[in-house]
Specification:
single chain, alpha/beta, Rossmann fold, six-stranded mixed beta sheet, four-stranded antiparallel beta sheet, 10 helices, 12 strands, ATP hydrolysis activity
Length: 250
């Protein structure tokens, strides 16, 4: 059974239809990459899967582990194991990253019928994860994303994902604005989480991220639709030739 299966998904913001009949299935243990020009609907897809407010699903289904999640709130989807790394991570003044993550982790554990994590165990988890991702300790003690550089925000997202260990990871242009060092941290964090039980949907404009996170499947988006699907070589073709052929066809 697919980890997530999207059937004939249509979605809009206000009166503007953005997704126009998406069909997509992600099997456990696979990485799917979505590429396409600006305005094609890539980020909308990740936001709709995560349940972000402001998007209206007008038709179709989103099945996560076989259950339709279209009516679930964003926090219910997060507790079920869906994680979205935003293209533009938000700031949460007054809440440290460690406090935020402890609350999120315990919410997931409670939803799974598990006890809250012990303080000593949580501290060890945070330190071990930060060390593995080569993150400075002070990043954990700072308010979430407040005063962070663009690269620090993306690295903090990967840190959160590594601590929470979600079942479905949605990365919305996580490589945007990253230098080569930050890109390496992001890709190593993603690759470390690849497992037979977990799936990824990686949204990007560029081949460079996919040189580090080699996808199993690549989808080309244009005008709210998937217009072509292939293996990792399709990303190389897009890097060489651009999206013109696909946007014209759409």
């Amino acid at each position: 059974m697919p980890l997530i299966e999207i059937k004939n998904l249509h979605a809009r913001i206000g009166e503007r239809e953005i997704l126009k009949g998406i069909n997509l299935a992600i099997e456990p243990g696979t990485v799917h990459a979505v590429m396409g020009p600006n305005g094609a609907g890539k980020s909308t897809l990740s936001n709709v899967i995560a349940g972000r407010e402001g998007y209206e699903v007008t038709e179709g289904e989103i099945l996560f582990n076989g259950e339709n999640i279209a009516e679930l709130s964003p926090d219910e989807r997060a507790r079920a194991g869906i994680f979205l790394a935003f293209q533009y991570p938000v700031e949460i003044p007054g809440v440290t990253l460690s406090t935020f993550l402890k609350a999120a982790l315990n919410a997931r554990r409670k939803a799974a019928g598990e006890a809250e994590i012990a303080p000593v165990e949580f501290l060890k988890l945070m330190r071990d994860t930060a060390r593995r991702l080569n993150l400075p300790d002070d990043l954990i003690r700072r308010p979430v994303n407040v005063g962070f550089s663009g690269g620090e925000k993306k690295r903090a997202d990967i840190f959160q994902m590594s601590v929470l260990e979600p079942t479905l990871c949605l990365l919305d242009e996580t490589d945007s604005g990253l230098d080569i060092d930050a890109l390496k941290v992001v890709s190593e964090g993603v690759n470390a989480l690849r497992s037979p039980e977990r799936g990824f949907l990686v949204i990007t404009h560029y081949q460079r991220l996919l040189n580090h996170i080699v996808p199993d499947v690549v989808h080309v988006f244009a005008d709210g639709r998937i217009v072509k699907t292939g293996d990792a070589s399709l990303a190389e073709e897009l890097e060489a030739n651009g999206y013109a052929d696909y946007t014209d066809a759409a």
